[in-house]
Design brief:
Layout: H1 2-12, H2 18-29, H3 38-47, H4 52-88, H5 92-115, H6 120-129, H7 134-169, H8 171-192
Helix pairs in contact: 1-3, 2-4, 3-4, 3-7, 4-6, 4-7, 5-6, 5-7, 7-8
Length: 193
């Protein structure tokens, strides 16, 4: 099943609508959607390493714009939509922890969380909820999200064919390791924050 999903995602890169789908996923992940753009980004970069840099730019711009939506959800709609989204994803306790951390460590919270696969919507909504300065939020989002996606582009443009060969030849092992890392990240997040 995962192999079919991987092959299907690779086939998306050939479609003219692929960059739009990537932008939509990246935008929505920053404010309300649970699936990170890496699910599409990495296979698309593997299929088209020549477009890795443009895909990274698309993800960065869409993620920051989606982050601004998340910010305004937190700023004006936290009591209704924002709280519901946090409850839906089981992140209610994390929101309160972040809110208190913003008073002392706001810049660092955005810098660290923007680089990790931890749900960025938690940062965006909480930034608005905590009343964090919008200009700083946008600047730090551009820096961190850009760094994250462009590092992936660098790796894919430099090692893409080798990475693709490893995935193709050892798909089950790679998929298992990716799932373990993904689940482990969420478990660590729940216990650390």
């Amino acid at each position: 099943m995962l192999r079919r999903l991987y092959d299907w995602t690779l086939s998306l890169a050939a479609r003219p609508s692929a960059p739009y789908a990537l932008a939509l996923v990246s935008f929505s992940e920053s404010s309300f959607f649970p699936v990170p753009p890496d699910v599409m980004l990495v296979p698309m970069m593997l299929a088209r390493p020549d477009k890795a840099w443009s895909y990274a730019l698309i993800c960065t711009v869409a993620s920051v714009l989606g982050g601004i939506l998340g910010y305004f959800i937190g700023l004006g709609l936290y009591d209704s939509i924002g709280a519901w989204l946090f409850q839906l994803y089981g992140l209610t306790e994390g929101a309160e922890t972040f809110r208190h951390a913003y008073a002392e460590y706001g810049h660092w919270v955005i810098l660290l969380k923007g680089l990790t696969p931890i749900p960025y919507k938690l940062v965006t909504i909480t930034s608005g909820f905590a009343g964090y300065h919008l200009g700083w939020f946008i600047l730090l989002s551009i820096l961190t999200r850009g760094a994250r996606f462009f590092i992936v582009a660098l790796l894919m443009s430099k090692f893409g064919p080798r990475i693709k060969a490893i995935i193709d030849n050892h798909f089950n092992l790679v998929a298992t390791l990716a799932i373990v890392a993904f689940v482990g990240g969420f478990v660590a997040f729940r216990y650390l924050f």
